Amino acid sequence: MGMSRRASILLASSALTWAVPAFSQTQEAASVPGAPATGVGAQDEGRPQASVASDSGEIIVTATRRNETLQNVAMAVDVATGEKLQRLNIFDAKDVSQLAPGLELTNTTGRNNTTTLRGITFDPDQGTAPAVQVYFNEIPTDAQVAYTALYDVSQVEVLRGPQGLLRGLSAPAGSITIGTRRPNFDHEEGYAQLTATSRAGYNVQGGVTLPFSDTFSIRAAGLVDGNRINNVRNVNTGRRSQSRTESFRFTAGWQPSPDFTAYLTYQYLTADNYQEQQVAGPGNTPAYDLVSLFFNPPPTPDTSARSGPPLSAKDYKSVQEGVFRSQNSTHIVNLAADWNLGAATLSFVGAHQFSRLQVDRDLDPGNAVPGYINASKVIIPYKVDTGELRLTSNNVDGFGWGLGAFYTHQTGTTVVDQPGDTFFFPVLPGTSQAILGALPYLPIDSHVVVPVDTTTYSFNANARYHTGGLTIEGGLRYSIIRGKQTTQLSISSPGNFLACPNFGCTPFSIGPNEIIPANLQRNRIKPLTGGATITYALLPTLNAYAAYGHSVRAGSTGVALPAGISSDLIRTKTEKTNSYEVGLKGSLMDHRLSFTVAGYYQTINGFLSRFPSIYYQAPAASPPSGFADFNYNADAKIKGVEASVDGKLGPNFDFGVGASYAHARFSNAQVPCNDFAGTGQPNQNGQPGVTGAGNVSYCKTNGRLAEVPDFSLSANAEVRFPVGTITPFARALFTYRPGFFSERYSYDYDSRELLNLFVGLRTAENRFELNVFARNLLNQRRITNISLGNATTATVSPLSFDSGYRLVNVTNPREFGATASFRF
Question: What is the 3-state secondary structure (H, E, C) of 285-304?
């Protein structure tokens, strides 16, 4: 095989980097089972009791896999009941971040959901388990599915800090549990809710429980949702971002005796998103006159075509010529059962999930090459089977214990089809500047197949001792995680006869060839994780606690990387986390005012992070340069403080305020970077190049682990004005994120003050409610995410196509709407 053909493979592989690992979040996140919350005392009789309150009015949570009051849980937990989500019109799980300071739920590209907590983030394309695990009815589920449709929910809990014991999959930052409503056995009940907005948004949802007897009952729920996603319109095509989601859920409950309860749930979800990638910048005439490139230097810009007009963040505009469409079709079957044996409760949870994701995307979002669409198609089907069995003692006082085991297996084959075209010079396709009308590039079609086969076994044991006001808990989880990573690449080209033989561009067809080295294909780790807590009741209404947690995340092998690079850029090592936390939880005024304050310190050995669009030079390749995304290990330290106050001051005023400070930084880490100016700091000033002797530039950093500020604040309140059987009300939801400077992206982010306001009325017993609302009432239009430098397309020559735009995400503009709901 000639040098030019090897170059074609490398260029095609590099172009595929964004797409191939897309399965990886589901590969691990959806592949480890959880279990339903199970009681350990007489209060819950061994059965799950999601979204309930104690007799004193305290919120009951399932954070520890038992039903406990929030005050007694030895960790920081944010809780949003289903009723609260409905009242605040939170239809998208990503909006839950407005209720939990320090939590960021983002989707910067329309296809990958990222969860950041305590300053620790995760890129779904890095091929590892996420930093924050998401559980849907106690089953670990990928965020792409769990965040898409939020309806008929009983409770959402945000568990902060490393999770290595209580649930199936270890995570360094925390977990989010989403529980759906289950049928009761003694009365009919349900709701219907309709919302419409001024920006073509709509949300229709409802649910109903039908008890056929005191032993068998069903609940059916459904959702239809549409919106404009990021409210961006394309200046070149006139298209606008839009989304439509449809889902329904059916749950059957069986309770043949007071000691045995089982729930079988089936959910179907389909979502279809067209998302335009917003850009900001002056735009450009990115091509050059061909004659001036060779015979009349300096090169003269070709003014016949622009990437687009000058655009600001406030314009909400895109310029891509191709579509970006994401489709998701998912089936989930879940079985949960609890059998109270007297001294202990035996619990089982199992699930089968089948998802098919399809992503069609123009890989030139900045329109750096006008008149050319770099169209990619990715199909990601996967099947996940999970199961967990747990046996937990029921005693409240004295010595308690728990044992558990789970198994998971995921299979599926990702298929990627997209061009890996090699441009010779920055000359526009199809213009008079192309020689005799020939294409100024070598067309390459690439076909990539990525089979997935992962298996996880896990065994855990924990012990608990409670006497008086003292509770000591601890346990260990032993896991066996194994998987195989392979990637088969096939490429073909019709050639480019005018460019041959200078570039070796004869027609060819190569493959399929395996592109992952044999010694890096198999991965097997046996981590030991866990933790311990101690809680002491200083007063009947004041608890102090201390907690230690240890978690682990397995590294991964890059599946689409150039040849000739060092092993540290191909394979990441296992990440290990240790965290120490102390806190106080209490209540005042007969539980009408509750508070939490916690401080923590965490170290991460080998934090798994992803560094996109890094320029590399690989001597074994020809041409020996290009751009690729690299995963890398780097040490990090996190320290922070969190506090919250929730109160019910009188019968007609409720409020909640929470604040978080998380100083999450790399610790003297050397990480891949773009350092074109040779300053030792990330930049793209000048022509691409590598500083130092490695394949990539490395920059020393003590910078942020995530593109979020250290401090954040959330507040919500409702005031009511009862008049007979009608209660007018006003409620507000406010979040604050201060500005900060990003070293990684060389950008100074502005502060964000997001205010949502609701005004309405409801009838007695909350049977009927009507409200009008305004989201982002202040109409702030702030950039929340930005690329490093302009979007470009490389060529074999020293010059690149430069779009003149940076890719951005911006807060949605102000939106008005109305909601009507009925409960029975």
Answer: CCCECHHHHHCCCCCCECCC
pLDDT number for residue 507: 84
| Distance of alpha carbon 210 from alpha carbon 51, whole angstroms | 19
Residues in the chain predicted with pLDDT less than 50, given as ranges, are: 1-55, 432, 434, 436-437, 501-503
Identify which of 612, 602, 561 has the alpha carbon closest to the alpha carbon of residue 744: 612
CB 538 within 8 A of CB 72: no
How far apart, in whole angstroms, are the C-alpha atoms of residue 384 and residue 396?
36
CA separation for the pair 29, 171 (Å, rounded):
10
DSSP reduced 3-state for 252: strand
- Dihedral Cα 601, 606, 610, 611, nearest 10 deg: 100
Q: Return the pLDDT at 808.
A: 95
Backbone φ, ψ for residue 523 (5° rounding): -130, 130
Residues 116 and 121: their CA atoms lie apart, in Å, by 4
Please list the residues that pair with 407 across neighbouring strands.
387, 457
Judge contact between 642 and 661, C-beta under 8 A.
yes
pLDDT at 122: 85
Report the first-to-last Cα separation within the chain, whole angstroms.
Answer: 72
Handedness of CA 184, 186, 188, 193 (dihedral sign): negative
Tens-place pLDDT, residues 686-724: 778 898 888 999 999 999 999 999 999 999 999 999 999
Structure tokens at 763: 């009838």
Is 781 in contact with 761 (CB distance < 8 Å)? no
Query: What is the side-by-side strand order in the sheet with 153-160?
Result: 77-81, 153-160, 174-180, 132-136, 139-140
437 backbone dihedrals φ, ψ, rounded to 5°: 80, 5
For CA atoms 355, 359, 113, 239, the dihedral sign is: negative
How far, in Å, CA of 199 to CA of 196, rounded? Answer: 9
- Say if strands 324-340 and 711-720 run parallel, antiparallel, or are unpaired: unpaired
The pLDDT of residue 245 = 95
Contact 346, 336 (CB under 8 A): no
CA distances from 459 to 37, 177, 388 (A): 17, 21, 10
Chain centroid to CA 645: 27
pLDDT in tens, 4-25: 333 333 333 333 333 333 323 3
Mark out the alpha helices in 609-756 (DSSP H runs): none
Residues 514 and 89: their CA atoms lie apart, in Å, by: 49
Peptide bond into 365 cis (omega under 30): no
Q: Are 572 and 631 in contact (CB under 8 A)?
A: yes
| pLDDT score of 7 | 34
Asked if 742 contacts 756 with a C-beta cutoff of 8 angstroms, the reply is no
| φ, ψ dihedrals at 72, nearest 5° | -90, -5
Q: Which two tokens stand for residue 542?
A: 């004041």
Q: What are phi and psi of 579, to 5 degrees?
A: -135, 145
The Cα–Cα gap between 160 and 644 comes to 13
DSSP character string of 10-34: HHHHHHTTTTGGGGHHHHHHTSS--
Burial of 409 (0-12, 13-18, 19+ CB in 10 A): middle
Place of tokens 């965020």: 143
Residue with the two structure tokens 């508070």:
595
Structural domains of the chain in order of their starting residue, each with its CATH number = 3-667+702-823 (2.40.170.20)
Nearest one of 274, 241, 303 to 432, comparing CA atoms: 303
The DSSP line for 312-363 is -GGG-EE--SS-EEEEEEEEEEEEEEEEE-SSEEEEEEEEEEEEEEEEEEES
Q: Quick check: 540 and 518 in contact, CB under 8 A?
A: no
Kindly give, in sequence order, each residue whose CB lies less than 8 Å from that of residue 3, ignoring residues fewer than 6 positions away.
Answer: 504, 622
